[in-house]
Design goal:
1 helix; alpha+beta; globular; 38% strand
């Protein structure tokens, strides 16, 4: 059974949502996820600044 992840500090930049969470080793990580249907882009970062930069530069290929 996978661990349940609780996100904190949710922020939205365009279609991308950014959230802070603790990984399995207890470190704070930031995830950036595109909320557009059928896009499927997501990535984990070690800082919120990097996640925000990725969110600002993300371009969906879905029309």
């Amino acid at each position: 059974m996978p661990a349940r992840i609780n996100f904190r500090s949710l922020m939205k930049i365009g279609p991308v949502q950014i959230g802070t969470y603790r990984d399995r080793r207890g470190r704070m990580k930031d995830a950036a996820v595109c909320t557009t249907d059928c896009c499927g882009w997501s990535s984990d970062y070690s800082s919120s600044t990097a996640a925000q930069l990725a969110a600002r530069s993300h371009r969906c290929r879905v029309s």
